Amino acid sequence: MRVEGIMKKLGKPVPLIAVGVLVITAFIITVILSVAVCRGKDPITMVDGVVLRDLHISHKVPKLTVDLNISVKNPNKEAFRPTKGTALLVYRGVPMGEAVIDTGEIAAGATISITVTLSIMPERLQGNPEIYMEVKAGMVPFNTYTKIFGKVKVFNMVKVNVISTGLCGFAVDVKRKTVGEPKCS
Predict the structure, then answer these.
(1) What architecture does CATH give domain 44-184?
(2) Per-residue pLDDT, 141
(3) How big is the chain by its Cα radius of gyration, in Å?
(4) Summary mean pLDDT of the chain
(5) Which of 131, 136, 170, 173 has fewest C-beta within 10 Å?
(6) Could you list the residue ranges that cross the membrane (predicted)?
(7) Strand, helix or coil for residue 27
């Protein structure tokens, strides 16, 4: 009888307040779970191949241009929306070339293939005695480093930042003007 008396005094707002508190609590728990437990998965970037486009070695201005064939897989249940992507061509730890990776949106569970063209900046090679010794030996090792930043929605509500990275090494055969098979980690 006491509860009924209190309900009559307060009127109908008590059930509405209880429902409101329950909805807000459920929302807060969902947000916490989506950020802490069900984080977005980082997309997977693989270098499928390296194609030598241009190679000209001289003492004045060496030229090297390669095409990276990259595939990016989105393992998430929602679309991956890239915000920024770069690919670096690295020789002995020094970045020699850089290119922008433009993928566009990647659907849930989808894999896309793109080609990125990297050219060395000749001024970074000049004065490096190692490069000329390796050119004489016939094989010049390079690495590529790719990094794509983006966002994925979790539970179709909260946007989570994800990063996709890839590191691969390959060697350029100067005499045959070919590129060896990339080895990725």
Answers:
(1) Sandwich (2.60)
(2) 92
(3) 27
(4) 84
(5) 136
(6) 16-37
(7) helix
Cα(150)–Cα(165) distance, rounded to whole angstroms?
12
Residue 117 — very low, low, confident or very high, per pLDDT cuts 50/70/90?
very high
DSSP summary character for residue 81: E
Q: How far is CA 72 from CA 46, 64, 82, 184, in A?
A: 7, 25, 11, 14
Whether the CB-CB separation of 68 and 118 falls below 8 Å is answered with yes
Helix axes 2-10, 13-36, angle to 10 degrees: 90
Residue 33 three-state SS: helix
Domains of the chain, residue spans? 2-36, 44-184
**What whole-number distance in Å separates Cα of residue 114 and Cα of residue 105?**
13
For residues 103, 107, 108, 114, the Cα torsion angle rounded to the nearest 10 degrees is -30
| Cβ proximity of 171 and 180 under 8 Å | yes
Place of tokens 């059930």: 15
